[in-house]
Amino acid sequence: MAEKVLLIDDEVEFLETLSERMKLRGMDVSTAETAGNAVTALDSNEYDAIVLDLQMPDMNGIDMLKVIKKSHPEMQVILLTGQATLEAGIQAMKLGAMDFMEKPADIESLTEKIRKAQAKKMVIVEKKTADKVHDILQTRGW
Amino acid sequence: MTQTLDTREGLQFFGRVSASVSHEIKNVFAVINEAAGLIEDLTVMAERGIPLQPDRLKGVANSIQGQIRRGDTIIKNMNAFAHSTDETVREVNFVEILDLTRALAARLADMRQIRLILGDCEPVSQLANPFDLMQLLHSSILAAIDSMDADDTLVLSVKPVNGGASFSLSVPGKDAPLKNDHVFSSTLQTMNVTVTVDENLRTTELFLPAQDATD
Question: Is the pTM of this model over 0.80?
Answer without folding.
Answer: yes
